[in-house]
Design a protein that fits this description.
This protein is of the alpha+beta class. The protein is built from five helices and four strands; from the N terminus they run ααββααβαβ. The chain has a four-stranded antiparallel sheet with strand order 2-1-3-4.
Length: 174
């Protein structure tokens, strides 16, 4: 009985090395996908990196951050003078990042007064007991030290009041 060689060849062709023809397609495809996935890593070494979905080098994790961060948000002032942070859902609907961006954008456009007034109307209509002692709604831009904040110190190092709206419990806000 004649033994056959495992190399793919015919009497008229020389033997070939490498993967059989039927496997070259998947190997080539895998190599291209691997190259596409690894290509964004080169952006880490560029002076002006580009980032895009779905192939990202995640600059949110690699970009150098400052020591402070600014946050525009609503606060309420109680009748005893204590300031409380108000939930963003009083300002807008949606997810946390969507609400945060809406508040920042509204204030940047110069409409913080209208935002404070809208929040005050929602508080006045609310039956939540934690809002019963509120006298004023403010839209503020707070600056926090990141390291301290992550360590538990949630006090702002700087605060700018962008808008104020007094709550009138008789029905008409001022």
């Amino acid at each position: 009985m004649e033994q056959r060689s495992t190399l793919s060849h015919t009497p008229n062709r020389p033997a070939t090395s490498g993967p059989p023809v039927r496997r070259r397609g998947p190997v080539l495809f895998s190599a291209l996908v691997l190259a596409a996935v690894l290509a964004p890593v080169t952006q880490n070494f560029m002076a002006d990196p580009w980032d895009g979905f779905p192939l990202s080098y995640f600059p949110m994790f690699t970009k150098p951050r400052g020591e402070t961060v600014k946050l525009t948000h609503p606060v309420g002032i109680r009748d005893d003078g204590v300031e409380i942070n108000l939930p963003g859902r009083l300002a807008a609907s949606g997810g946390m990042n969507q609400i945060r961006k809406h508040i920042r954008k509204t204030a940047r456009k110069g409409n913080a007064d209208e935002l404070a007034e809208r929040i005050a109307r929602r508080i006045r209509r609310s039956d939540r007991p934690e809002y019963a002692s509120l006298l004023e709604v403010r839209i503020v831009r707070s600056t926090f030290e990141i390291e301290g904040f992550m360590g538990g110190d949630h006090r702002a190092v700087r605060r700018e009041v962008l808008a104020r709206h007094m709550l009138d419990r008789s029905g008409a806000d001022r």
